[in-house]
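One-letter codes give the sequence; each number marks local geometry. A record appears below:


***
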Amino acid sequence: MNKSVKTPAVLLTLLSLLAACITTAGAQNAPGTSAESCILAEAESGAVLYEKNADSRMLIASTTKMLTALVVLELCDPRERVMIAEDFAAVEGSSMYIKPGEILTVSDLLYGMMLASGNDAAAALALYVSGSVEAFSAVMNEYAQSIGCRDSNFVNPHGLDADNHYSTARDLMIIACAAMRNDTLREIVSTKHTTAAGRSLRNHNKLLWNCPGAVGIKTGFTESAGRSLVSCAEREDMRLVCVTLNAPDDWNDHTSLYDWAFSSYRIVRVTKSGDAFFRLPVISGEKEEVMTRAFEEYTAVFPKSDDVDVIMEAPNFVYAPAEEGKQAGVIKVIKNGRTEKTIKLVYGESVALDKSVPLTSWEKLRQFLNLDKRTVMTYGG
């Protein structure tokens, strides 16, 4: 079965977020790591909290399988059944021990690949999706580029050392953020142990047991690459992703970086552009209230030492008609007394004038002169 990949809209959104990665002030206080290359970022905004040689091209071992899983889930239903060909060649390294002639689901193979790090499962999925490892690798590269990876090249689905197979800590962070946005993959990588196709599988990621808030995502090791680890942790409504490459003490590196980051930073989030935000009273309208929404999404990470408020400036009420998409006010993110970001507050729906409830002359004058006081409302931060 040969399938082609299309760039999903959600990943284009992710690309736009991660393209604006900014190293947040205060990283100089981060703990040291044993890693040759490392990055720590907030997953929603893409804000980079710490980095070390994050753009160095490195061998990445089985962390490759994050991208393999993303591609497979983009192109396959987890319930699809996969026949392991009679001439299926053995793959060296870690394995879930599939056998020629077996029939497993895509889901079984994904669990075997992500928990037990089965190289055989990765190869079987590549052959099922694209017919060959080479063809599947081409899809991997296309997909990686579509989500913002700029310094990676993949020639196999499992990560065994190969010429021209490499990535960077930054690109792996981008892949991990995309992976954790996929509900199915998120569930898989957060599973500590399960049974798949009659096999008992235990997740190689020790952080799931030992690091508070850990929810994924993939370990890796070869003699040449050293220890590779991509992880994700959630605390206090904030999701962080950490990548270390060639890190002898990776478990402690990740735990100490998370402890530092969660104690030092907080997330500020403005409602998504399509979501209801606040309702304003309407004078002489066919409805008594009109829904408003933020014109754009905004998520940012700030040091906890900063004084941050999110305020809304809008009229006490509005006069009908109100037109969807027209500006109703503003939302401001204020840091240490200065405006960090201003976002338009717009009407999320139209409310027509109710001609049976005409405005008084005084109301018409107030509307014309825009005399109504604006309110300033703190709603978060």
